[in-house]
Amino acid sequence: MFHGRSFDDVLGRLYPQGLAPDGLPFDGVTNGMPPDGSPPEPPPYAGSTDEIMTTPQLPAPGATGSGFTPEMLPVLSALARGFAVCEAWQSVPGADAFENRRVFHNGPDAAAPSLFARLDRAGLSWRIYVDEAERVSLTALLHAQELGPRLSDRLRTMDDLRNDLAEGSLPSYSVVEPRMILSPNDFEPSATAGSAGEGPTRRGRSDARAAEALLHTVYEAIRVSPLAGDTALLVTADTPGVTADHRGSRVPAVVVSPWSSRGSVVRAQSGHGTAAEVVLGMLGVARSARADSVVAPVLRGILTRQTPREPRTWPRTTAPFVPRRTASNASAGAERVTGLGGEVLRLVARGTGGPDVRAPETAAEAAVFLGDNACPHLGGHNATADAQKGI
User: Fold this and answer.
1) Number of domains in the chain
2) 240 lies in a domain?
3) Which terminus of the chain has fewer CB atoms gathered within 10 Å of its CB, N or C?
4) 233 and 356 together in one domain
5) How many CB atoms are located within 10 Å of the residue 46 CB?
6) Are residues 208 and 304 in the same domain?
7) Which residue ranges have biased composition labelled Pro residues (predicted)?
């Protein structure tokens, strides 16, 4: 799960002509041009504001904000075109990243048992994989009260993920968390904070290329794994963040599955609120009739094949070049951590020392802090040393 990206921002231009491979309309960014190529409707402006609203500096009628083209995000775009994209996957309107991530695993009812607890009851395994450089799991923090001691043997590193896939020992359900603090690869849009001469002037640069590199790594590990024919990968984002979508709270959702036809578009309404039910449905766990009525159309849109595709026919992706940046670097070390990374650090600080403990603000401070406060279940790595390797 990435952070702070809308559907329009990263997938809205996936099919520029506004038509999906099945010939039906694709609800992306059309820039005001109807699918049949006819001229768009004139702008609904009149009177004294007409001159202002039709100046050349304004976007064309119907145009949306800026975003990525498929060429700018080759890995995500290749997977979206090569497998299934859910064009109606909604986050929780107005909710922050923490709440959306909770809803993803709990559903709308905060008191309901989480997906993890339901998997335990069904006798199915699960794990959470985090980056070796940080060794802090936001998912574990959000569900710590419910899961408690069960987390001790469920937290693993990205190296473990690659090994589990290679050895065919992946659990029934896995959460892969990107880095949110040190050299983030969580896709969060960059933002400027403060001004020159006032200490750290940037709020962490979360490079989109780093997010693409992470996605390539996970996808490629699945593609060459003996479990490729039985594994589905959901790529999504917690919230649209500051990026706009013409359908409000919609976020990207791409499903990589050997049971999905190339160019599949899932038009059934879905989202974080039904994600747990979708996962249980794909695992064959019995659901209520009400849940099944919501999830069944989504599963039909994803699982469109009678036989799985051979991994050799899957799209091939290439990891993009990502500039080497470390927490000890003079410029990178002085950067503020990203917005979500800062929230995670404050959550860890409150949990380890109470509300009066100051959370680190820069990457260099965060590296030291994580070395002292990372999850003890993840082994004896040193976060400071790991961060200085440029991970």
Assistant:
1) 2
2) yes
3) C
4) no
5) 9
6) yes
7) 36-45
